[in-house]
Amino acid sequence: MTEIMHPPEPFKIKMTEPIWLLPRKQRYEKLKEAHYNLFFLRSRDVFIDLLTDSGTGAMSQDQWAAMLLGDEAYAGARSWEEFYSVANDLTGCEHIFPVHQGRAAERIIFSVVDTDGKIFISNGHFDTTRANIESRGGIAIDLPDENAKSPFKGNLDIARAEELIKQKRDRIGGLILTLTNNTFGGVPVSLENIRQTYELAKKHDLPLYMDIARIAENVYFIWKYELNEEGDDLWEIGKEICRYADVLMMSAKKDGLVNMGGMLCVRDDTLAEQIKIDLILGEGFPTYGGLAGRDLSALAVGLKEAFQLPYLEYRIGQVRYLWHRLKEIEIPVLKPHGGHAVYVDAAKFYPDIPPEKYPGQVLACMLYLEGGIRTVEIGSVMFGKEENGKFIPAPKELVRLAIPRRIYTQSHMDHVIRVFEQVKNKESFCKGFRITKAMPYLRHFTAHFEPVN
Ligand SMILES: Cc1ncc(COP(=O)(O)O)c(C=O)c1O
């Protein structure tokens, strides 16, 4: 068996932010004060924060330097030119619109194209994409390819997609590829599948949308496992992928390596004019969108850095390391691992806790209690429902460990692994939870819990 090594971090640390582990007794108090909902914890009470990889990464010295040189002119700023040049090179789109974050791109595009009664077919809609389609009368259908060859479990099921198109051609609004497929574990889509999706879209004269929030991570998997490490210019692979899309949406808080930002890119002139109106009404003048000049400058640098091979070897290598080490100590991790997170099957971890008592929430609380680690439940707290007094569980009871970019080192990952070992060998402090307070939508953000024993 080859030993899985943590890749050396391809950076030196120039600035630090202190983190500390509160004593266990205090962590227990904090959990109680937070009503056992980790969203209510203060960041300062968390030691290792794996709540999300979105907007939580560290910028490089080149990005900070670019920020200081940011041009804050209202229109046609130098920062805009820097950003446009990089985004235009990557996407090949003439029309590039900066926005404050990914969901703004989704909101704008699905306000200007026809969504009413239209079906959008995707390998996996991210939840804000789905919400932006469905809130405008559209129908978002996920067709992931369950038989795809590992690691490309993010692929679209081309055969099922074509069948649906043939049945409902007049109602199909378009195809959407999410790279990587966050909804199904951050797993990548193969270049072959991207090309096949493009062919399918062209054959039926449908637009192809791409959500490229994690395109660089996706490109790394293609380079390593599909192209067998041929060449070393990953930016070129990114460019090829983007060429297949008619519309590109990006939350730059992921592979833009910035803390806030996004973009919407289109090829069609008429569509661009419609977007411009909406953008000016809601985000800002088209050369800054919802962003400051300095943000655009940092994004221009971050986008390029995200495709650098040493960075991606470290990034995906860190996820792989955590995943393998957890597997070695028999933690039930979802297979294969994706590009930004490790998912643990809490139903297998706590087989005696039924879904209606939220095993994922118990595991997430135990990880905080034993090691100050903040994760997120992706199970029946997030997706479970009550219908006519009957509990409908989520398809899976998961806990996600999302890894922020360029933030944590191997010793932090080793802490997470040690804590898992501890949690595995210890009885949980409760036998499940009861929800005592919840909003009708997105209840996981604000729900209150009470332990049941
Ligand atoms: C695949 C994907 N698309 C879109 C979004 C929405 O982006 P934002 O949070 O910047 O609005 C996210 C956020 O996590 C995402 O993962």
Describe this structure in words.
- The protein has 2 domains: 24-53 and 309-451, Aspartate Aminotransferase, domain 1; 61-306, Aspartate Aminotransferase, domain 2.
- It is globular, with a radius of gyration of 22 Å.
- It contains 16 helices and 16 strands.
- The protein is of the alpha/beta class.
- The strands form 5 sheets. Strands 2-8-7-6-5-3-4 form a 7-stranded mixed beta sheet, with helices on both faces.
- Helix 1 runs antiparallel to helix 14, helix 4 crosses helix 10 (269-282) and helix 14 crosses helix 16.
- Strand 12 and strand 13 form a beta hairpin.
- 49% of the residues are buried.
- It has helices spanning 24-33, 61-68, 78-91, 102-112, 127-134, 158-168, 191-203, 215-226, 234-243, 269-282, 293-306, 309-328, 346-349, 359-371, 380-383, 410-424, and strands spanning 48-49, 95-99, 119-122, 139-142, 172-178, 208-211, 247-251, 262-266, 341-345, 373-374, 376-378, 385-387, 390-392, 398-402, 433-437, 448-451.
- The structure holds pyridoxal-5'-phosphate (PLP).
- Pyridoxal-5'-phosphate is lined by residues 54, 101-103, 126, 128-129, 178, 182, 211, 213, 251, 253, 262.
